[in-house]
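Quick start: what a row looks like.
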Amino acid sequence: MDDWKRLYQDVITCRQCPRLVQHREHVGQVKRRAYRDETYWARPIPGWGDPQARLLIVGLAPAAHGGNRTGRIFTGDASGNFLMAALHWTGFANQPYSLHRNDGLVLRDVYITAVVRCVPPGNRPRPDELRNCRAFLMRELELLHRVRVVLTLGQVATQGFLAAWSAWRSLPRPLRVRFRHGGQCALDETHTLLMSYHPSRQNTQTGRLTRAMLVAVLEAARDLLGSEGSGVRLSQTLDP
């Protein structure tokens, strides 16, 4: 676990992107009225989940009053609950909600991360900010040696993951994949990429992404992985 601990510390102490540092800390000071009595995390967010995961989920970035508040990605907001409900339905999570870091949520055979670790203004990271975070995702890929399926949530997350994968694999040219919900392609002989719309409120409230649509993608991941379990004990789960 020493490599995981070093990665965790490197992520949460990162200050490479002045714009993101200023924004995440500003949000943590101003707060949202509903959370005015809470202390915001307001630091970069590490990935979390099962260190023996065969499914890797890659999102865009922490939400201003979700992960940036709670210190765990997809936690404390509607997007997180939407994702966890689908993960629970397909057997990857022990409960259908993600409220805070000590809510008892356990991910089984899945690890969740993001291509950007700080909340970006307007949820739009700049290319240089994506590049600065790329090394963290590459280090996670190195440690998650059992991953066989990668699910990316949204176009930016998809392209950010492909850039990290290509660099990690030292490919002569970056992989190019056209994003589409439900899309599937081989990354190599043993790894498969699946794609889904991001479970943002903009997508879920308009019906662009329904619970059934996300569950269908996760069931496709389950089919690709087969019935073999991860074998991880709950005490081994990595939590930020």
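That is the whole record. The longest strand covers residues 55-59. The CA atoms of residues 8 and 184 lie 30 Å apart.
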